[in-house]
From TrEMBL:
This is Triosephosphate isomerase. The active site is at H97 (electrophile), E169 (proton acceptor). It comes from Saccharophagus degradans (strain 2-40 / ATCC 43961 / DSM 17024). It catalyses: D-glyceraldehyde 3-phosphate = dihydroxyacetone phosphate. The gene is tpiA. Belongs to the triosephosphate isomerase family. Keywords: Cytoplasm, Gluconeogenesis, Glycolysis, Isomerase. One of its GO terms (cellular component) is cytosol. InterPro entries: Aldolase_TIM, TIM_sf, TrioseP_Isoase_bac/euk, Triosephosphate_isomerase, Triosephosphate_isomerase_AS.
Length: 251
């Protein structure tokens, strides 16, 4: 999957149904011209991946997953491996989302192992990082985000790290209705790009956290931002189509 065009990733989280897959993909595929020129990826829950893969087949929208096992195969009840996801046509996988770090105990070691698993089968990992409201209030946003990135960087090495997409998602902005300010997004993402550049690494940075059709164009057109990771606003086809269309117009 090329990463030169702007990217919009819809993360359905633990929502959706077979009916939603059908109606949602129909709306999106019937209106492809509206988002020509950008990359759109849809990440339904595991149970809807096959239905989504079938519905998207042959079209411009790519299939993504919300998680992947850190193990390749074997006695890991309830886990879904990278080869399993890839065999369904999954091109991208979200790794280290703050909801999984907070409620599923995902630590840096596990996250780094998941990144390696995804890359080993050619799936593009989208590594999520972001600070809490308390960390932001202390003025620690940049340090926290860099710490999250550098742990994975050191675990997997700069060559593999350069193959990632990173999503900056301030935890306090997720599902809150308030995005980070464009000044804050610029400050954090400029600093990340600069630190990575010192290591000879250049990769796409996305923003996530209360993105909607109204703010997508402004955020996605920031010079340091390559796209958007969208939660709530990716669950209603009309709204998501408009969000993608507005991003495409600003691209
Ligand atoms: O993965 C998506 C992010 O957590 C953002 O979610 P949200 O758009 O509902 O704030």
């Amino acid at each position: 999957m090329g990463v030169k065009s702007k990217i919009v990733i819809g993360n359905w989280k633990m929502n959706g149904s077979a009916e939603l897959v059908e109606s949602f993909t129909r709306t999106m595929l019937d209106n492809q011209a509206a988002y020509a020129g950008i990359r759109v990826v849809l990440c339904p829950p595991f149970t809807l991946l096959q239905a989504m893969a079938d519905a998207l087949e042959g079209g411009p929208i790519l299939l993504g997953a919300q998680n992947v096992s850190e193990f390749e195969q074997g006695a890991h009840t309830g886990e879904i491996s990278a080869p399993m996801l890839a065999s369904m046509g999954t091109k991208m996988v979200i790794i280290g989302h703050s909801e999984r770090r907070a409620s599923r105990g995902e630590n840096d070691r596990i996250i780094a192992a998941k990144v390696k698993q995804a890359l080993s089968v050619g799936m593009l990992p989208v590594l999520c990082v972001g600070e809490t409201a308390e960390e932001k209030a202390r003025g620690d946003s940049g340090a926290v985000v860099w710490q999250q990135l550098s742990v994975v960087l050191h675990a997997i090495g700069s060559e593999l790290f350069g193959q990632l997409i990173v999503a900056y998602e301030p935890i306090w902005a997720i599902g809150s209705g308030s995005t980070a300010s464009t000044d804050d997004i610029l400050t954090i993402t400029t600093a990340i790009h600069a630190k990575l550049a010192q290591l000879g690494i250049q990769l796409p940075l996305l923003y996530g956290g209360s993105v909607n059709a109204g703010n997508a164009a402004q955020i996605s057109s920031l010079p340091t931002i390559s796209g958007l990771l969208v939660g709530g606003a990716s669950l209603q086809a009309g709204q998501f189509l408009l969000l993608c269309s507005n991003t495409a117009k600003g691209a």
